[in-house]
Amino acid sequence: MPLEKFQWCFPARPNRLYNIASGITIAGVGTFAKVLLAWLNKVNCYNIELLESAVSRRNKNQPLVTVSNHRSCLDDPSIWGCLRIKTLFTRKYMRWTLAANDIVFTRRLYSKFFSLGRCVPVCRGDGVYQQGVDFCLQKLNNGDWVHVFPEGKVNMTNEYIRLKWGVGRLIAECKQVPLVIPFWHVGMEDVLPNKEPYIPHIGKTVTLLVGKPIEFRDMLTHLRNERRSPLEIRKKITDIIQEEFVLLKAKAEALHHKALQDRQGFQSNNINISNEEKANR
């Protein structure tokens, strides 16, 4: 049943009970992410200090937008297992993220749970002007963190997908130009394969490469002085993110390939050492 059959899942004025329930949900989901990604699997993070600093140590009024590729249904929340436990358990630090209403918000119970975990429903195909995007823009204007998968779906083929322009609107229309941090991850599709049975695996390798913050302030000032249309501005912003994705993808895949080779070599050496020990007994 699609979300439009239900009422909007976020209260206009969250009460204390709602905030407590949200905090418990975020802590529980954060625990799951840490256990799955960092303890049951192996994650190699590069430049993670840039992301951690932006999430937990930026100015309290500075909005943050992170963007990444989307390879598995467990990318969010699992990928946040790379962050410190304190960050994962602190409600004020955690992200808001856009989630497809026809996949995530299909039951009233799911709607309650995912909204407590700061997932915001978005209707794919309804364009950049819709309630979910408006809601995230409001959160950015409050200085919060919003994460976006601008591919708009799980990219099962790992091909280049034209990014959706909703992220361009969030950046362009935010009252204060947000800090924008891109990152690319490889290997989440091994942790949760995109085919049945949908059971998380352990012992897999994941690589996460955080890129440098993208500066949009000067570009936005220039485009506005030229009186470019909102559509042109959204497209330009999204194009820049796409270009950065291309660079990050190549680097992350090279790092991931090397990590797999090193791991295979380490396992082979251990097997050889074990065989030698048995032969010497």
From TrEMBL:
Regions that span the bilayer: none
Principal location listed in the UniProt entry: mitochondrion
Family per similarity comment: Belongs to the taffazin family.
Domain called Phospholipid/glycerol acyltransferase: residue spans: 64-188
Keywords: Acyltransferase, Lipid metabolism, Membrane, Mitochondrion, Mitochondrion inner membrane, Mitochondrion outer membrane, Transferase
Keyword Transit peptide found: no
Protein's cellular compartments: Mitochondrion inner membrane; Mitochondrion outer membrane
Family matches, as InterPro entries: Plipid/glycerol_acylTrfase, Tafazzin
UniProt membrane topology term: Peripheral membrane protein
Protein's name according to its UniProt entry: Tafazzin family protein
Signal peptide annotation: none
Catalyzed reactions per annotation: 1'-[1,2-diacyl-sn-glycero-3-phospho],3'-[1-acyl-sn-glycero-3-phospho]-glycerol + a 1,2-diacyl-sn-glycero-3-phosphocholine = a cardiolipin + a 1-acyl-sn-glycero-3-phosphocholine; 1,2-di-(9Z-octadecenoyl)-sn-glycero-3-phosphocholine + 1-hexadecanoyl-sn-glycero-3-phosphocholine = 1-hexadecanoyl-2-(9Z-octadecenoyl)-sn-glycero-3-phosphocholine + 1-(9Z-octadecenoyl)-sn-glycero-3-phosphocholine
SUPFAM superfamilies in the record: Glycerol-3-phosphate (1)-acyltransferase
Claim: Cytoplasm is one of the keywords in the record: no
Organism: Saccoglossus kowalevskii (Acorn worm)
Alphabetized CDD domains for the sequence: LPLAT_AGPAT-like (cd07989)
